[in-house]
Structures are given as C-alpha cells and as structure tokens.
Specification:
alpha+beta, 3-stranded antiparallel sheet, Pilus assembly protein CpaE
Length: 140
C-alpha cells in the first residue's frame, strides 16, 4: 500500500478518485492516521449527490462514523489501479538484484524508470511523472 504522503501528492497533482467497491482509503485526519477503510457494498458505500460524493458507513462496523465527504478521504490506490492509470505508457515491472521494484514507462521516444522498495510506490511515482508530463503538454 502506498503511503498517505504519496497519496496526498497524487491527489494534489490532480488525480481524481471515483470510489468503487474494493477501493481502500484513509480519512485525511491526524486523529485517524494509520487507519484504512475499504469501500464495500455491505459496509461503506459511495453515495452520489448533486453536491458531491459521500462515503456512508453502514451497520455497526464503523459505529463512530456516519459518513465522510470524499474530499476528506484519501484514496490509497492498489498496484493494479496504478498500473491501469499508466495506460499505454506502461512497459514493464521488474526487480533489481537488491530486491527493489522498477516500473518502466515509455513516452514518445523516451523511457523512464521508477525504482522503489515496493511495487505500489514505484507505480505511484510513474503516475506522478505521467501527470506532470500531461500538465506540461497541456500548458504548451
């Protein structure tokens, strides 16, 4: 799982979350640091309103919470979700002799490598670079 700091950076760079069953998130509050939740049709459902998305806590699983606005939740995307965000730029995932994970992406004629101690972090760094390229391309 990626760190909350990396998840905040992804959100800050414009990654938008549309909650679906199975997504993991944290509530972006120091009081709940380290606690994670999973969207589930049984316990935590995403409710769409004109004013935005609310994550509703059903039943007694999280009895102290009623609901939280999606803006106050921090999506912790899984490895497969991060890989999906890379789309056609994704080339490969490999490991180094030291056990680090390397994600390789291709953009135009260039390839980039993103190394981290876990695959999710390597993918997240690649997604950040993709967002930065898209932002730069849009500005020019």
């Amino acid at each position: 799982m990626i760190s909350t700091e990396l998840a905040r950076e992804l959100r800050g760079k414009g990654l938008v979350w549309h909650p679906v069953s199975g997504d993991v998130f944290a509530i972006d509050s120091s009081e709940l640091e380290g606690d994670t939740f999973t969207v589930s049709d049984m316990t935590i459902e995403a409710h769409e309103f004109d004013t935005g998305t609310i994550l509703g806590f059903n039943g007694t699983t999280e009895w102290a919470l009623d609901s939280v606005a999606v803006e106050n939740a921090l999506w912790l995307p899984r490895e497969d979700q991060l890989r999906g965000l890379l789309g056609g730029t994704f080339v490969s995932l490999s490991t180094t002799d030291a056990g680090a994970f390397v994600v390789e992406t291709a953009h135009d004629e260039n390839t980039e490598r993103f190394e981290a101690s876990d695959a999710e972090t390597a993918y997240a760094r690649a997604v950040l670079a993709l967002i930065a390229r898209a932002t730069a391309d849009a500005a020019s």
